[in-house]
Write a structure and sequence with these properties.
With about 180 residues, this protein is mainly beta. It contains 3 helices and 13 strands, in the order E-E-E-E-E-E-E-H-H-E-E-E-E-E-E-H. Strand 10 and strand 11 form a beta hairpin.
């Protein structure tokens, strides 16, 4: 593709002028595709090599709803809060997807490109009713840091949102807006 420097959600990227979802890696000529940018998770068809700060993720999400709070990986030099994990079954996915599937801090290194999924403060992790694993400090802190804000579902003895089963949580705002039910 013919590349040009462009702005993407507040970040400069070298993108293909023919399409809006193909970009060139920062330190190589590899071209990657971004999928799922309208939802809570972002998926990549390849992970850029030699990108230790994961600039590839920056600006990838169109929906800033779940990406405007710093994630737990910032202390490891990750520029935009989330790392990209090459997973044998899921492909190139963002760290919040690894967390949502319960693969972070599960005792197995699930990412072939990094050890981040087992390197963070795993002893300070809690498992939510759906199986999502999150930092204990994320619970009830008025910040949506997990898929569907499940980290805010139980605060001060009150339940917010609805658990339809052990694997499905509907956040309060979707229940109140009538968008979803069990």
């Amino acid at each position: 593709c013919k590349t040009k420097i462009m702005e993407r959600n507040g970040f400069l990227k070298k993108g293909c002028s023919e399409t809006e979802d193909h970009f060139q890696c920062v330190h190589s000529n590899d071209i990657y595709t971004i999928w799922g940018t309208e939802a809570d998770f972002v998926k990549f068809d390849l992970t850029c090599s030699n990108d230790p700060n994961m600039y590839q993720f920056c600006g990838s999400a169109n929906d800033g709803h779940h990406y405007h709070y710093p994630a737990t990986t910032n202390s490891r030099g990750i520029l935009c809060g989330y790392y990209i994990c090459d997973n044998v079954f899921l492909g190139g996915v963002t760290s919040n997807m690894i967390t949502a599937f319960g693969l972070e801090c599960n005792g197995v290194s699930d990412c072939t490109n990094t050890q981040f999924d087992e390197a963070q403060n795993c002893q300070n992790m809690v498992t939510l009713p759906t199986g999502t694993v999150t930092l204990a400090s994320n619970l009830c802190d008025n910040k949506c840091q997990d898929h569907y804000c499940e980290d805010e579902s139980l605060c001060n003895g009150y339940h917010y949102g609805v658990y339809c089963s052990s694997v499905r949580y509907i956040p309060l705002h979707d229940v109140c807006n009538g968008l979803e039910d069990c």
